Amino acid sequence: MKLSSRQKNPIRGMAFVGISIFAASCGGGSNGGTGPPASQADVVSGTSGQESGAVGGELTYTVTVTNNGPNAATAVVVSTALTGSATILEISGGGAEGSGTVQWPGIANLGSGETSIFTIRLVPNAEGTLSLRTSSTSDTPDPTPGNNDGSSQGATVSTTVSVRADVRTTVSADRVVKPGAQLVYTVIAKNLGPSPASSVQVSDELPAAVTVVDVTGGGVVSSGVVTWPEAATLASGDSLAFDVTVTAPFVGPFTNIVRSSASSPDPVASNNDGSGSTSRATSLVGYDTLRVITGSQNGEQFGWEVENLGDIDGDALVEELQIDRHR
Ligand SMILES: [Ca+2]
Ligand SMILES: [Ca+2]
To answer: Scanning 59, 66, 145, 266, which has its CA 20 to 30 A from the CA of 215?
Structure first.
């Protein structure tokens, strides 16, 4: 059992109450047929949550305690035992975790028909099964101990935890390049999570027409493909970034395609198998031309934003033309 807590303000000073699941059944009121009828309260407790989850992916579990009566239940004590590897993010209602068990605040009086609900938010840390089992006791005799002693089907929720790491690999470059000029491809492989990605390898299928000038990150060029050294682990949210500098051809367009592979399961193949638009960068070869960037309509006027791709002034010149639509 490995369990850690990131609670900022753990409840302090709360006594850890040991649970005996036999207490309720032993207390189940035999009155000997004398005196007034004993109070009874059928407390029902259980856990619900997702049946599957991912390493690093947040899960929320709900603990429910209901008194089905007929009388009020006094001194209700509820606990939830966790099995598996997880980091607890939040425990509601003042519950506190210790030694793998969340002890919920005692309920002095749970009226007939009343329900108390608690939640646990956590992140699984490893593949396997994560189980949460809730049990409860009360000072009031319970005619049906089997539905709250932790033995019922509803007492336990089990989550199958697997690795899922969505790596997204993209390339970007200038849309237009002058003939024979240098062009930089920026390649980024980002793990969108939720799990860490393993053995991530990024490659770049260069356009046949370009000449490689420089590759960062130790990438090796072979047969027009740049392959970078494998990253053993890429944490959720982390990125690998590389640049490839090439000399553009004199005639375009030309397209660069990037891909990545990993040993961890990837639920979204299309954003890193080279098929998606963001995994491709197509550049045009241009010189001293105007290119429409955007067109828009504003009231009675149409507007076009155009870019001067030439080098007359050294830098690209952007102008916006407003033309009366009725002309
Ligand atoms: Ca019961
Ligand atoms: Ca992916």
So the answer is: 266
Q: What predicted TM-score, i.e. pTM, was given to this entire model?
A: 0.73
How far is the centre of ligand 1, averaged over its atoms, from the C-alpha of 135 (Å)?
A: 10
- The helix (run of H) or strand (run of E) holding residue 323 is strand 317-324
Residue 191 in tokens: 């793990």
CA 259–ligand 2 middle distance (angstroms): 10
- In the predicted model, what is the mean pLDDT of residues 198-211? 97
Domain 2-162 has CATH 1.20.1090.10: no
For residue 150, how far is its CA from the centre of ligand 1 (angstroms)? 10
* Calpha distance 102→81 (Å, rounded): 6
Instruction: Quote the ligand 1 centre to 46 CA distance (angstroms).
Output: 11
What is the C-alpha to C-alpha distance for residues 90 and 10, in angstroms, rounded to an integer?
Answer: 10
Q: What is the CATH number of domain 165-285?
A: 2.60.40.1530
pLDDT of residue 310: 54
